[in-house]
């Protein structure tokens, strides 16, 4: 028997619950096939936790997360809060607090296009083919955590965009190391022509770049980066950016992959890693059993790779997803007019197909 690992499953809300179940099944299959011992625990967060305890991130959950070697997370959110901007307790507070408490300052989002899904994107296949981007989005600074408030009796509101040098340094180093292992190109995205926090960002990245002379660095304004992503996605290798710009650019880039349902992400710092699809709780399809579980399954692959350094196991999950797509199986979000009804699977059936291919590959 190999080493034993503790994994906490944190389904959250909405389709988070549905897709995480499939991600966990894949991890269980990997444990069985490769003779690893994965010990699973479950915890609550978000709306589900508010309903049960009044707190979007209960102490018990936080304790459990801190004891884990890795976390597979779904999503948080509920329509009740989306339509009530004045709600004092909100599901996403649980998410922001969790990132802060676990020191998860770097969000990695690989945008890799499976050839089989070239037609599922709204961007032309010839522009897309071969795109392979790795985003590093800073996660614990920026306007999300700066001072905010209202004045003039509520008629004026402000949020503060704030970064400290050390926050930029630590994520920049991680991004440069990743670029070294890829095509050795790094684009740092900011708005240094206007924002002081961006000027600090750029200065700091320029300093860190000196430690990595073999990596070619490009500094690009966020507006221009947003345009270039659609115009020529193959231009990008590693992209390093702040919390707000990263939030927006990675959703834009998700369209390169065809669907939000295909993209995984990892949030890492210096301790436990958190792995999650980039999509939210998708109220519009919750409970219908049609959510695409592949982003959660690919998040499980990232978990195996980054937190446990199980490269072979991680690759076999990615290959199993690839084989499933090559065989023509689709969930409804990635189906096109050529997909026959018989090949459109629900969430659970898609998860099971990936398990079948995992067993065949091994
Ligand atoms: P969303 O990502 O939940 O959904 C956007 C669109 O993509 C929807 O039409 C949805 O049906 C579709 N989609 C998303 N994931 C899919 C999947 N796996 N398979 C098939 N289709 C999928 O974003 P939203 O609608 O803007 O937000 C819904 C809720 O999720 C909100 O409450 C929001 O606050 C929350 N949210 C949470 C997170 C998170 O927990 N990390 C991230 C984003 C949004």
How is this structure best described in words?
Helix content is 41%, strand content 19%. With 362 residues, it is of the alpha/beta class. The protein is globular, with a radius of gyration of 20 Å. A hairpin with a 4-residue loop joins strand 11 (264-268) and strand 12. It has helices spanning 15-34, 47-53, 59-66, 79-82, 91-101, 125-128, 165-180, 196-209, 222-231, 243-254, 294-306, 311-326, 347-361, and strands at residues 4-12, 37-42, 70-75, 106-112, 132-138, 148-151, 156-159, 185-190, 216-221, 238-241, 264-268, 273-277. The longest helix is centred in the first third of the chain and has 20 residues, at 15-34. A 10-stranded mixed beta sheet has the order 2-1-3-12-11-4-5-10-8-9, with helices on both faces. A two-stranded antiparallel ribbon has the order 6-7. The structure holds nicotinamide-adenine-dinucleotide (NAD). Nicotinamide-adenine-dinucleotide is lined by residues 15, 19, 75-77, 82, 92, 95, 260-261, 279-285, 291-292, 295, 333.
Supply database-style keywords.
362 residues, alpha/beta, Isopropylmalate Dehydrogenase, 2 domains, 10-stranded mixed beta sheet, two-stranded antiparallel sheet, 41% helix, binds nicotinamide-adenine-dinucleotide
Mean pLDDT: 95
CATH H-level homologous superfamily name of the largest domain: Isopropylmalate Dehydrogenase
What is the element string, with H for helices and E for strands? EHEHHEHHEHEEEHEHEHEHEEHHH
Reported CATH architecture of the largest domain:
3-Layer(aba) Sandwich
The coarse silhouette is: globular
Query: Total helix count?
Result: 13
Bound molecules: nicotinamide-adenine-dinucleotide
Radius of gyration: 20 Å
| Intertermini distance | 17 Å
Total DSSP E strands = 12
The portion of residues assigned to helices is 40-55%
β-strand percent reads 15-25%
Number of domains as seen in the coordinates: 2
Helix-strand category: alpha/beta
- In this structure, how is the largest beta sheet organized? 10 strands, mixed
**Strand order within the widest beta sheet:** 2-1-3-12-11-4-5-10-8-9
Name the CATH class of the largest domain.
Answer: Alpha Beta
- Point out poorly predicted stretches: none
CATH T-level topology of the largest domain: Isopropylmalate Dehydrogenase
């Amino acid at each position: 028997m190999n080493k034993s690992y503790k994994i906490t499953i944190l389904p959250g809300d909405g389709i988070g619950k549905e897709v995480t179940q499939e991600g966990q099944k894949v991890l269980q299959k990997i444990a069985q096939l490769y003779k690893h011992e994965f010990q699973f625990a479950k915890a609550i967060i978000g709306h589900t936790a508010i309903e049960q305890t009044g707190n979007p991130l209960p102490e018990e959950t936080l304790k459990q997360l801190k004891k884990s070697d890795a976390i597979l997370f779904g999503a948080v959110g509920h329509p009740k809060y989306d339509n009530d901007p004045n709600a004092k307790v909100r599901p996403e507070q649980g998410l922001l607090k969790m990132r802060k408490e676990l020191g998860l300052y770097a969000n990695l989002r690989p945008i890799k296009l499976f050839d089989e899904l070239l037609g599922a994107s709204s961007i032309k296949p010839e522009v897309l083919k071969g795109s392979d981007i790795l985003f590093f989005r800073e996660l614990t600074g920026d306007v999300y955590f700066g001072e905010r408030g209202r004045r003039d009796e509520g008629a004026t509101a402000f949020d503060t965009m704030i970064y400290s040098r050390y926050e930029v340094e630590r994520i920049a180093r991680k991004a440069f190391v990743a670029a070294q292992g890829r095509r050795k190109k790094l684009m740092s995205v900011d708005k240094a022509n206007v924002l002081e926090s961006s000027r600090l960002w750029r200065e700091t990245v320029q300093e860190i770049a000196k430690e990595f002379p073999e990596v070619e660095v490009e500094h690009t304004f966020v507006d221009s980066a947003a345009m270039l992503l659609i115009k020529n996605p193959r231009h990008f290798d590693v992209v390093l950016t702040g919390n707000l710009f990263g939030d927006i650019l990675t959703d834009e880039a998700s369209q390169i992959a065809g669907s939000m349902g295909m993209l995984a992400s990892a949030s890492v710092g210096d301790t436990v890693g958190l792995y999650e699809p980039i999509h939210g709780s998708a109220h519009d399809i919750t409970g219908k059993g049609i959510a695409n579980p592949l982003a959660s399954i690919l998040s499980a692959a990232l978990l195996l790779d980054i937190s446990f350094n199980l490269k072979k196991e991680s690759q076999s999950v990615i290959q199993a997803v690839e084989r499933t797509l090559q065989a023509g199986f689709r969930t409804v979000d990635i189906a096109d007019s050529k997909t026959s009804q018989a090949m459109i699977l629900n969430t659970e059936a898609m998860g099971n197909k990936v398990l079948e291919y995992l067993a065949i590959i091994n």
